[in-house]
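The records we work with from here on pair a chain with its fold. Taken together, the tokens spell out the fold as the letters spell out the chain. The record below shows the convention in full.
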Amino acid sequence: MNPLRPLFAILVLPGTVLGLVPYWLLRSFGSQSTAWDGALQLAGALLLIAGLSLLGWCIYLFARVGRGTLAPWDPTQALVAAGPYGYTRNPMITGVLLTLCGEALFFRSAAIGVFAVAFFVVNHLFFIYVEEPGLEKRFGQSYRDYKARVPRWLPKLQR
């Protein structure tokens, strides 16, 4: 696969959600200073590392196993059920949410926190009404079986 395919999708989608929107929110609404600044920044940094690591792993699996990208205009050709996808159906969104929460804490930004909640709600509805029906059409019974054994958001700790 051409390495520019996933790079373009990463720049457009996570780049906008994790870079441009938080930048704009910080510029527009600023950050709040508290007595807990150091602890909040440390917690935020840890969440950022965890979220970006999970996101990177998912993007790698989409490229290698799924032979596609995270972008709806260039979807995977194969169902990805390996790695974190064996525990939850949407670990990529979880990675983005962890990163947004990390940014909210690190920059002490309530606006980014509100954006993270809105991002989750929109994605939850999108997955129920668009993504999952589309995956059922594309992958048929194999996706229905996967859906029956792997939860949407909260991972099963034992498989």
